[in-house]
Specification:
Layout (H helix, E strand, L loop, with lengths): L22 E12 L2 E8 L2 H6 L7 E6 L3 E6 L10 E6 L3 H7 L6 E8 L12 E7 L3 H13 L6 E8 L8 H9 L4 E6 L9 E2 L2 H8 L6 E6 L2 H13 L7 E4 L15 E2 L2 E2 H4 L2 E3 H6 L6
Parallel strand pairs: 7-8, 7-11, 8-9, 9-10, 11-12
Antiparallel strand pairs: 1-2, 1-6, 2-5, 3-4, 3-6, 12-15, 13-14
Helix pairs in contact: 5-6
The structure holds flavin-adenine dinucleotide and FE2/S2 (inorganic) cluster.
Flavin-adenine dinucleotide binds next to strand 4, strand 5 and helix 2.
């Protein structure tokens, strides 16, 4: 399951055998998620390649805006959705600003899917607690969709979703619909008190500590900014979650995305090939600090 090394058989990007060649894709729809995050729904122009495209929850793609650059984003639509690929982009610098300036109908380059994915088969029969901070919900989104579509295979699903303010929640439309369903428990928290907010208030690790999920047969999957991951992992340690029952995703600056340029390595591991999904056990075994 882990690894998903890029080779001629499994690369979707262009099916040319050349993983550096982007596919041309059209921006079908743009959704304004928060003041600084937009989601793009992309459609690969080549019909055959679009139909043949498969990916797994947690895999990423490289989006290029012509004349600006190329950067890495998680594919966050459901893996069973064949109509488009969704990516959510926080404005950070040159290329992400160029993405924010795109309009529906414009073309981008896309190299995808890249990287490994969450080992969801190995998680069958377990309780899953997802902890997502801000845009950290993006890598969790396709996994939550998969597990909801296969809910009989998982004992219980819980999502702790955190944002600075109510406006900063990504995928509000999903959270609202998941809150109505009985298939997943949703806890939403914001950093500080805000008029009209009647849910949890407090930083994600603090709320998790109060929730006190039992580590018994439970896997915790934590995605978000590095500082949130650091303190959440400390809480999980205090709650006696074992390191092989905790998963997270790493963000390293990437270039080639296929294990050639050496830009993204941590010790002997390449985030673009061996990641971005890692168990805490794997991370603890790496020679270099990862955060
Ligand atoms: C595996 C992976 C998955 C990612 N998924 C998403 C996603 O779903 N949505 C999203 O909005 N972003 C995601 N990112 C981060 C995204 O790739 C960067 O924000 C983007 O590359 C910045 O490009 P830029 O040209 O706008 O920034 P630049 O102009 O190159 O840099 C602007 C600022 O952003 C910082 N930066 C650049 N690249 C990264 C990076 N990879 N990680 C952290 N800081 C960076 C720079 O240090 C600088 O401070 C992901 C990164 C990785 C490695
Ligand atoms: S991005 Fe080039 S080796 Fe990972």
């Amino acid at each position: 399951m882990k690894g998903n090394k890029i080779n001629k058989e499994n690369i979707n990007s262009g099916n040319t055998g050349n993983p550096y060649l982007p596919e041309i894709a059209t921006v079908k729809k743009i959704i304004k998620e928060t003041p600084n995050i937009v989601s793009l729904q992309l459609v690969i122009d080549d019909e055959k390649k679009r139909k043949d495209f498969i990916y797994e929850p947690g895999q990423v793609g490289q989006i290029s805006v012509f004349g600006f650059g190329e950067s890495t984003f998680v594919i966050n639509s459901s893996t069973s959705n064949k109509d488009f690929l969704q990516f959510s982009i926080m404005k950070a610098g040159v290329n992400t600003t160029a993405i924010h300036n795109l309009s529906e109908g414009e073309k981008v380059g896309l190299r995808a899917p890249l990287g490994n994915w969450f080992p969801y088969k190995e998680m069958e029969g377990k309780k899953i607690i997802f902890v997502g901070g801000g845009i950290g919900l993006a890598p969790l989104r396709p996994l939550i969709f998969y597990m909801l579509e296969n809910k009989d295979k998982y004992e219980k699903l819980t999502l702790l979703s955190a944002a600075k303010t109510p406006d900063d929640f990504c995928f509000k439309y999903d959270i609202e619909s998941w809150e109505k369903s009985k298939d997943i428990d949703i806890i939403s928290t914001i950093d500080t008190v805000c008029t009209g907010w009647d849910k949890e208030v407090g930083l994600c690790p603090n709320v998790l500590e109060v929730l006190k999920p039992s580590p018994e047969n439970t896997i915790a999957i934590v995605c978000g900014p590095p500082i949130m991951i650091k303190y959440t992992l400390e809480v999980l340690d205090r709650l006696e979650f074992k390191e092989d029952m905790i998963y997270t995703t790493l963000e390293r600056r990437m270039k080639c995305g296929v294990g050639k340029c050496g830009r993204c390595n941590i010790g002997e591991k390449f985030v673009c090939l061996d990641g971005p999904v890692f168990s805490l056990k794997e991370l603890n075994s790496l020679s270099e600090a990862f955060m």
